[in-house]
Amino acid sequence: MPVTDAERPWFVYLLICKGNRLYAGISPDLAARLALHRAGKGARFTRAFPPLRLIAVQAHPSRSAASVAEARLKKLRRPAKLLWAAHHSAVLAGFAL
Fold this sequence. Notes:
- By secondary structure, this protein is of the alpha+beta class.
- Helix content is 38%, strand content 26%.
- It is built from four helices and three strands; from the N terminus they run ββααβαα.
- The protein has helices spanning 30-38, 44-48, 63-75, 78-87, and strands at residues 10-17, 21-27, 51-60.
- The longest helix is centred in the last third of the chain and has 13 residues, at 63-75.
- The N and C termini lie far apart (29 Å).
């Protein structure tokens, strides 16, 4: 049975990009979104600073929950973002940049 949009998890993710910059985003299809970033067709930021490595992923039950988590993550300073990444890096096995 196919997964409906309402049942599909949304992911908050954190990338290390060129120049050692961090980029946070959300997506329901993380593999496709990472492919867009790699191809230079993702966010304006990742076109200017191409992603080097996916360092963390966190699943959420809805877009709304993922957006709230992303906003919280983006407000953090770099050391706190890296600490967040250290706690959310275990699920990276299925995703490659």
